[in-house]
Structure formats: C-alpha cells, structure tokens
Amino acid sequence: MYSTKYNLLIENLRGQGYDDASNMRGEWNGLQALFLKDSSHAYYIHCFAHRLQLALVAVSKEVHDVWRFFSTLTSAINFVDSSAKRHFQLKSIRKDEINDLIESGEIDTGTGANQDCSLIRAGATRWSSHFNSVRRFIGLFGSVSILLQDLVDKGLNSNIRGEAKGLYLDIKSFDFVFVLFLMHEVLGISEKLCQTLQKNDIDILNAVNLVSTARINLQQIRDGRWEEFLWSVIKFCESNDIEVPDFDDCCTRGTKRSCQLKNNITVHDHYHFEIFNAVIYFQLMELNERFPESTMELLTLSNALSPVDGFRSFSPCDICSLVDKFYYHDFSQEEREDLMRELDHYKFDVPHHVQFQNLDSLHHLCQTLARTTKSVIYALIDRLVRLVLTLPVSTATTERAFSGMKLIKTPFRNKMENDLLANTMVVYIERDIALREVHEELPSTKNGKSSKMSPNKPNGYSDSEMEILIDISFHSNRNGKKTRGNGLPEFEPPMMDDGSNAPVRSEIVIEEIIEEDERNKKKKLIFQLMKQQNHMISMMSQGHEGALGHFLSFASNISKKSDAYISSRKKAVHRTYNLDLEKP
User: Fold this and answer.
1) Which of 439, 445, 461, 497 could form a disulfide with 465, with the two C-beta atoms 3.0–4.6 Å apart?
2) What SS3 class is residue 371?
C-alpha cells in the first residue's frame, strides 16, 4: 500500500474525506470504515463540494417542474451545439444583436466587453456547471429563440424542423422562464459557496460558516423577495413576447376543464407555493441534512478556535470539550490540565495582539502563531489547531490531480511507467514549489547582464523557453546524465588523441538536443490536422461553404507555429549553452 511504501502509520491518521461513492463512504465496508477500524480518531468528513452538488441534484428530483426545466434546457443546448452550422448561426445572430444594442445605446463598449460566447452544458459531475449553464442561457435567450424560429422554417429536413418547433414552444413558455430565473437566483447563492469550497486554503470552520450564510440567504429569498422576483420574470417575458398568465385564474392541468382544477388554487399560489417555496424548501432541507451529519458536534466545538471577528467565538470550555471527546488520544491527562492553564494566558494575550487582528481563517491563525513564535509558548493549543486543520473540507485538490493525469499521460506518452508517472504528478501538483526551486537554482545573470526576475519567468526567459529548459532538465535527469548547477545537462565533448577536448560547433549540439522533440512536435501537429480535417468534412456535409477555407487557413497557421516553435527552441538552447561552447 501507499502508506507502507512511504512509512505512514495508520494510527496517526486524524482526518479523511471522500466523495459520495459507496465504496469510499460506506458505513460498514467503505474505505472510511476500514480506516476507522485501525484508527478510531480518523474522523470522516464528506466532501463539502460534493454535498452541495448532491443537494442540487436532489432538488431536481423532488420538484417535477425543475426536472422538466433541466430536461428542456439540456435538449435545447444539445440541439444547438450538436451541429457546427447551428453553432455558427447562433454566434452570427448574437453578433448582430450586440451591434443593434450598441447602436441603440443600451449596452456599453470597452475592453473585454461583449465577447463571443456559446451555450454551456450542465454536467452531473462538474461542480457549479448548472449555474453557468443557466446564466449563459439567459444571456443568449433572444439569440436562441431567433435561431429556433429560423430553423422551423428553413431546416434541412422534417426532423430538424419538428425538433426546433417543439423546443421553441417549450422555451417560450412562462413555466420555463419562471424556473429559469428561479434556478438562477437559487444557484447563484450555491455558486459562491461551491467556488469557495474548491479553494486550496479553505478550512473546516470557514466552510461551516459559508453553509450557514447560504441557508440565511435562501431563507431571505423565500420570506421577502417573492414580489421582486415575480416582477423581474414578468418584465423579461414582456420583452421577449412571452405570454404571461392571469394570476387570478384557477390553476388547471392540461385542458381547462373543471374536472382538472388543481384543488381550486390560483395560478399565483401555484407559482408561489408549489414551485418557488418548494424549490427553496428542498434546497434548505438538503443543506440541513447533508452538511451536519454526525460531525456537527466536532465542527461546532472546533469553531471555538476560530480567530474571526476578534476571536468572538473563543471558549475555553468548548476547547477542552473538543480535546476530551475527540482528541483525548493525542493529549495525556497532564497535558489536558496544562491546556487549561495555557488557555488562561492565551485569552488575554493572543486575541489582543496586534498581529492577530483581522485573521479570517484557522490556517492563518496557525501561520501567525508560528511566525510570532507563540507556537512555542502555547504548544498544546498549536497542536490542537493543527489537528483540526487536518479535517478535510473538500476533495477538489484531489480531483484536479486526476484531471492533471490527462495532461501528463497523453496519447503520445501512453507507455509511461508508474514510477515516472507518480514522480511527474508530484511535480505537476506541487508546480508552485517546483517553479520556485527552478527560480532559485537558475543563475541571476543572463549573457553577462542582470535580468529582471519574476516567479513565472525566472531570469527573463519567456514562457516557451522556460518550458524547454525544464523539459531538457527532466529528460537529462531521467537518463542519468550529469547536470550543471542550474539543472541542465552537462555536455561532454569528444576527446582528442592528446587528451584535450575537441572543438564542437553549437549547431551540432542543438540538433542533438532537439531532434527527439521535433519528432514529437510533428506527431502532435499531424494529430491536430487530422482532427481538424474530420471536423471540416462534418461541416461540409451540413452545407457549410467556408469549411474548406477555414481548414486551409488552419493548416497554414499550424505550419507557421511549427517553424516558430523550432526557432524558439534553438534560440533557447543556444542561449543556455553559448557560454560553454564555441560560437559558430
């Protein structure tokens, strides 16, 4: 196992977090249960970001109108984006719409404003993708309506015309627009929470506070913002020629027969209570059920260490209870008594210290304790803070590592062995540390002149040149060659009969260094051309006349990029080695 290879002791495990997979979170046979058998203090925290996504999915299952909305939204987006021709038509319609709005003075112009955009698909496994999909559809609602209306009359066949007609009627209904704006309002609150939970520096206390603020915002929308929300929906419908129902009429299903009256409730009550309040209610219920679980007491007691608002929640009794109930294995009986005495000094010292003011998270408190050397004075409190910090908030960092495997083990590196893959993954995941190490090892001068240095471009090298230098260092270390002080391979020129080094021209060395890389680069370019060629054939089959010209332009740009890449690589290698080799 991984723990055996790196001499990690299971009994020292203090926190574990996974997603909603049953083989990971299973109460009896899941991985977290197996770890708890060996270490009863390895407290399990369900990934907060996954919980948020699961709460959203649960709402769509419970409220039928929301399920129908997402079904229609997905169908409309797939219908438009499945065809390159329809995708191009949508962009053209949007461009004309923006030009008209600029001429009428309804929108402003400026750098980065009014950029081309396309629809976004919502995915069950992509966090916050539902909100992005809803927000983008609202922005392109008018363009999508025009496109569907045009396809109803000018579609290539009856299937396209029929599907366009059905989608047009669905999205131009008041029900669709109502749920569209409702999900934009509700998911907007969840979006902020979801993005924050995916940060690397978020801790468990801030996560709990963010969940609480999300509950408060949802409750406020439910209690006092119904009239404001309904007015915005009606205004949008009027501007897009969508029929608004009479809210005083009785709500019916299907036809308007008296036998299909819906419990004699009005249309206003249907939208207000059966959709608006129901969606927010299920969202609140899911947040209440999924986030606290069995760890609520642990999180509540841990909040006593929080430095937020000038240590407002500081409580020596809660801190001692936290140790007695959850971390008694890490503190002896004598240390628990010493902890009380430390807390007596701590509450009059740290909260009033200048450097501890305006701290907003537990990890900032831990860093400040170490920086001010108070971690030595309050060693037991510092130990407890570090134990609480081991509780994982989300698995977003781990998910990003899995995504990084696609960038490292590509189709051109499909024979990479496990050891090389693992070592490369460590460099990729901890790339901030790796770049800092490269920044420190490279010389501070270049060509005899001092150069401006930055974290992203050490010693003034460009991005492409830095990629080349790191690539050379990687391959040289893998092959076991000698390296210089800056990590680049040491060139060993051939020996003469008298024992002296033979003069070698730099062009020969450059060709030897970049020969393999040029072959790999050509393979990538050929793969891109083949992919673009298949795309061109698909576009031509759908009647897009400019597909061939677009492909020829793409091929020309690929050729120019290839020449520029080789030239940049030769320049970078020459700049690196021209101090040791004779110039031509």
Assistant:
1) 461
2) helix
Query: Residue 465: what pLDDT?
Result: 44
CB 521 within 8 A of CB 562: yes
Cβ(89)–Cβ(119) below 8 Å: no
For residue 273, pLDDT beyond 80: yes
Return d(Cα 81, Cα 70) in angstroms, integer: 16
Q: Quick check: helix, strand or coil at residue 83? A: coil
Give the count of domains, the chain.
Answer: 4
Q: Where are the beta strands (DSSP E) in 207-337?
A: 250-252, 261-266
pTM of the model: 0.60
**What is the pLDDT at residue 209?**
76
Give the integer Cα–Cα distance in Å for 584 and 581: 9
Note whether residue 448 is domain-resident. no
179 touches 275 (CB < 8 A): yes
Neighbours of 483 (CB within 10 A): 13
Q: Is residue 86 part of a domain?
A: yes
Residue 540, Cβ density class (10 Å: 0-12 exposed, 13-18 middle, ≥19 buried): middle
- Identify the H or E element spanning 251: strand 250-252
For residue 47, what are its two tokens?
């990934």
Task: Give the residue numbers spanning the domain of 243.
Answer: 53-107+117-291
First to last CA, the chain: 55
Please report the pLDDT score of residue 457 as a whole number.
43
Which two structure tokens, joined as six digits, stand for 303? 């909040």
User: CB of 447 within 8 A of CB of 459?
Assistant: no
Closest Cα to residue 186, out of 158, 220, 162?
A: 220
My answer on whether 152 and 71 are in the same domain is: yes
Pairwise CA distance, residues 298 & 318, whole Å: 10
Q: Report how far residue 286's alpha carbon sits from residue 281's, in angstroms, rounded to the nearest whole number.
A: 9
Cα–Cα dist 165/480, whole Å: 66
User: Based on the domain organization, do 67 and 84 belong to the same domain?
Assistant: yes
pLDDT at residue 459 is higher than 90? no
Handedness of CA 137, 139, 143, 145 (dihedral sign): positive
d(C-alpha 182, C-alpha 233), whole Å: 9
458 in a structural domain: no
Angle, helices 379-389 vs 333-349, to 10°: value is: 100
Same domain, 19 and 122: no
Report CA 522 to chain centroid distance, whole Å: 32
Residue that wins the pLDDT comparison between 409 and 450: 409
Contact indicator for 301, 321 with CB cutoff of 8 Å = yes
CA 255 vs CA 174, 179, 259, 273: distances in Å: 16, 22, 10, 22
Contact criterion met (CB below 8 Å) for 322 and 384 = yes
Token pair in block for residue 257: 């027969």
Asked whether residue 469 is assigned to any structural domain, the reply reads no
316: exposed, middle or buried (C-beta count within 10 Å: 0-12, 13-18, 19+)?
A: middle
